């Protein structure tokens, strides 16, 4: 997150405490808004999570973990005693995110878990290249939704499969 983002330190402190409690690794990136813009240009700042996940999966960092999890700077763990590992064990998918409660996007990438491997690396590379959403509303969320629908990995909105 950027140095001037007020919820960032509070959420990072809470999430770091959760990680320590459960023996998970935790990394927080704090930088100036100028540095973030430079790292992402021409993309909007929401794309930073995709940049960081790509970096994690392309490094030795990911080899130490079953999942690499991104948590937005304005998101904090509420139930400190519930294990993320137990929750993710219920999800066989390589990439896990939440459903968005709004009509704006089907997906919410505020918390995004990826299992290190070829599928996740390839998906994140393809997502990074979704130029149409670099500066549009819901940015990487809309791009991920579009990409997964195009691949047949997410039901098409309005279909019987999407309805449940």
UniProtKB/TrEMBL annotation:
<dbReference type="GO" id="GO:0000139">
    <property type="term" value="C:Golgi membrane"/>
</dbReference>
<dbReference type="GO" id="GO:0006487">
    <property type="term" value="P:protein N-linked glycosylation"/>
</dbReference>
<keyword id="KW-0808">Transferase</keyword>
<protein>
    <recommendedName>
        <fullName>Hexosyltransferase</fullName>
    </recommendedName>
</protein>
<comment type="similarity">
    <text>Belongs to the glycosyltransferase 34 family.</text>
</comment>
<dbReference type="InterPro" id="IPR008630">
    <property type="entry name" value="Glyco_trans_34"/>
</dbReference>
<dbReference type="InterPro" id="IPR029044">
    <property type="entry name" value="Nucleotide-diphossugar_trans"/>
</dbReference>
<dbReference type="GO" id="GO:0016757">
    <property type="term" value="F:glycosyltransferase activity"/>
</dbReference>
<keyword id="KW-0328">Glycosyltransferase</keyword>
